[in-house]
Structures are given as structure tokens and as C-alpha cells.
Amino acid sequence: MAKSSNVSRINEAYIEQHDAYIRRQKQRKKRLFRRLALFGLVVMITIVCVTTYHIKQRVKYNELQAEYTEKSDQLASLEKEEKKLTQEIKLLNDEEYLLQIAKTNYFFTEEGEIVFKLPEEESSY
């Protein structure tokens, strides 16, 4: 059973104003809490999005870095091959080199020459 209070409430304007002030303060606190919660939620979502974006960019950067390294190695080997082929072109423009290749590979001879094909020497262990 509830106790009944022997004290009655005074209905004066000051008491009503004070009660209204207390209600307004509670409503302000409630709104402030809601705004702070919303702001916190927005900040958390922003942090998650930025972090996700940053991680994706790092992964993409690492992939591109690996691809760059691979392409650089490929470029170096192609440049080396180009130098080799350029040197071979210079040699093929030389008539003496062409005659030497013709003699060794195709047994080309000039008049009066005799070509002897010797077997390649193997080591005698």
C-alpha cells in the first residue's frame, strides 16, 4: 500500500516556473544526448569509410608496385636483347662475317678451298 503524503503541494507561480524550468533542462539534455549520439555515429561511419578506402588504396598500390617492378625487369631484358640484336645487325652487314658464317654453317667455299669438318672436341676424362 502506498503511503499518502500529508504534505500538499503549493500551487504558486514560482513552483510552476521551476517545474517548467526543470522539464526544459531535461528536454535539453535529452536533445543534447541525441545530437551527440548522432554526431558520434556519423564520425564512426566516416572513420570506417576512410579506413576501408585507405586499406584498398594500399592494396592497389602494392599491386601496382609489383607490376612496376615486373615491367621494369622486362624492360631491362628487352633493352639487353635490343642491344644484342643491334650488334648482330651490324655484324650481318659485314661481308667478312657473312662469309665466315657461310663457310662454317653451310660449307661455302671459294675456288681452291677445301673445307674439313672436324668433330667437336669432348673432354677426355
UniProtKB/TrEMBL annotation:
Fetch the InterPro entries from UniProt: DivIC, FtsL/DivIC
**Which regions form coiled coils?**
61-95
Q: Where are the transmembrane segments?
A: 32-55
Its GO biological process annotations read:
cell division
- Keyword vocabulary terms for this entry: Cell cycle, Cell division, Coiled coil, Membrane, Transmembrane, Transmembrane helix
Q: One Pfam match, by short name?
A: DivIC
Metal-binding as UniProt keyword: no
Disulfide bond as UniProt keyword: no
Q: What's the protein here called?
A: Cell division protein
Q: Which organism is it from?
A: Gracilibacillus dipsosauri
